[in-house]
Design goal:
Layout (H helix, E strand, L loop, with lengths): L1 H14 L5 E3 L2 E3 L3 E4 L18 E9 L3 H5 L9 E5 L3 E5 L2 E6 L2 E2 L9 E5 L4 H5 L9 E11 L4 E17 L2 E17 L3 E14 L8 E13 L2 E12 L4 E3 L1
Antiparallel strand pairs: 1-2, 2-4, 3-15, 4-10, 5-6, 6-9, 7-8, 7-13, 9-12, 10-11, 11-12, 13-14, 14-15, 15-16
Length: 247
């Protein structure tokens, strides 16, 4: 039995070094899993070590609930400058929590979302001169953690929401309202889970004369059981033309 557990754990650790692998509509996320030093099974545990060991983490696109697009946030400014390149400026908040202690962060509508706008002397003034914004676009993904029994011990949905195609002085394709929201979070007994998002970089996907904004956001997941810590991350890239690309 101990040999089988060792082989199973070795498989998990080997798998964690792989990149995304498509399995139908499901993608498998690489992850790193480490045993907590000195950890032992709880005396009252009804499960053995395989219950507390993650065997697979998957992500798949699902239908976005209609209410996500109907949510209204409070009116607010564009936030702080967090990144600039030659033709673009990113404003908002660089890092924000989406799940804390196994629960969705409830004040996300109060958070300043990301905007990638034309770099001007006064970005706030430029923003209110912009036009041509799309309706909000949303893409939702479901993430599942399965243990070595094949049980789903952590599951949640997250939705990427943003508006695109904004133009300044008749040119460009810019981004505003970019946010990541969590929902339907489920964490089984014996596990803890947190997740946060951060802006990694911005890029001009167009030309100097007619820029197209691009933004890459990373989501970091931190899970733990009484026996192990598990960390993984994934990234997505959105553009001012409305494209969403997963990494």
């Amino acid at each position: 039995m101990h040999i089988l557990k060792s082989l199973a754990l070795a498989t998990v650790l080997l798998f964690s070094s792989q990149t995304f692998a498509a399995i139908g509509d499901v993608k498998v996320l690489p992850f790193v899993q480490s045993r907590i030093e000195g950890a032992t099974l709880p005396a009252d545990s009804k499960f053995d070590e395989d219950y507390y060991t993650i065997g697979k983490v998957t992500v798949t696109e699902v239908e976005t609930p209609a209410e996500i697009l109907e949510e209204k946030g409070d009116e607010k400014g564009l936030g702080e400058v967090i990144m600039t390149i030659e033709k673009l400026i990113a404003l908002g908040k660089k890092i924000w929590a989406i799940i804390e202690a196994g629960r969705p962060v409830l004040n996300q509508n109060l958070m300043t979302p990301l905007s990638v706008l034309p770099k001007t002397d006064d970005p706030d003034a430029a923003f209110y001169q912009m036009e041509g914004w799309s309706a909000p676009k949303a893409v939702t993904y479901k993430v599942k953690y399965e243990n070595l029994f094949g049980m789903t011990v952590i599951a949640f949905d997250y939705t990427v929401v943003f508006q695109y195609a904004g133009k300044y002085e008749g040119k460009g394709n810019y981004i505003t309202g970019l946010n990541v929201k969590a929902s339907n979070v489920s964490v089984a007994w014996g596990f803890q889970f947190d997740a946060n998002s951060s802006l990694v970089n911005i890029a001009n996907r167009g030309s100097k004369a007619d820029p197209t904004a691009g933004a890459t956001v990373q989501i970091d997941y931190k899970a733990s059981s009484v026996m192990r810590t598990i960390s993984t991350s994934e990234s997505f890239h959105v553009t001012g033309k409305g494209a969403v690309t997963k990494y």
